[in-house]
Specification:
Blueprint: H1 3-12, H2 14-32, E1 60-64, E2 67-69, E3 78-85, E4 92-99, E5 104-107, E6 123-124, E7 131-135, E8 154-161, E9 167-176, E10 192-193
Parallel strand pairs: 2-9
Antiparallel strand pairs: 1-3, 3-7, 3-10, 4-5, 4-6, 4-8, 8-9
């Protein structure tokens, strides 16, 4: 093929050549793109981490304070606060305390103080699916009530649906014994006022 013939042939096929060059350029650009987006990009979240439309939010359940100085003797009108959210409006719940090496479980719902509905006989979320309730009777003092059998350790409080008994959430707590010798005692707090 002569040079003139090639030039003439290319000019007549300009559109075809332009399309081929664009396709080649697009292929090069795609090849240079990273296979995964940067970690801060929204698409980087896995499907399991993203809320599907119509799914309900997780239940949140907390205890305040979390690190507790167990008192030598009974302190009246002091204890801990339980706070929860993410429930159905007016949902009835119960709280169980689990402690000890054997995992002893005790329903403490009926002895909760401020926030317990005595008329209805239970603990109910408000119209926003939240609640707050105080627990005072479980801290009678190490001198008279070894409720934890001398095992000063991490314990858990479990939030259950009162009707189905489904476990909804768990709130950890750490008890610091009267001797204040455990390593976690540096951050423990006194029982807080509840009335």
């Amino acid at each position: 093929m002569s040079k003139e013939f090639t030039v003439t042939w290319l000019r007549s096929r300009r559109l075809l050549v332009s399309a081929a060059v664009l396709l080649l350029l697009a292929a090069v650009v795609m090849a240079l793109q990273p296979a995964f987006r940067a970690s801060g990009a929204p698409d980087a979240a896995s499907r399991a981490q993203m809320m599907e439309e119509g799914s309900k939010a997780s239940v949140v359940f907390e205890i305040h304070p979390t690190f507790i100085k167990y008192p030598e003797g009974r302190i009246r009108d002091h204890g801990v606060w339980f706070v929860g959210a993410g429930l159905q409006p007016e949902q009835e719940v119960k709280i169980r305390m689990v402690w000890g090496a054997a995992g002893i479980e005790n329903d403490i719902t009926s002895v909760l103080d401020v926030g317990f509905d005595e008329d209805l006989g239970g603990l109910f979320a408000n119209v926003h699916g939240a609640f707050v309730v105080a627990f005072e009777r479980g801290f009678r003092g190490a001198a008279s009530d070894f409720v934890f059998y001398g095992e000063w350790e991490a314990v858990s409080f479990r939030l259950h649906d009162a009707i189905t008994d489904e476990l909804l959430a768990v709130a950890p707590a750490v008890l610091c014994g009267p001797a204040l010798e455990e390593p976690w005692c540096n951050v423990s707090s006194e029982l807080v006022p509840i009335e």
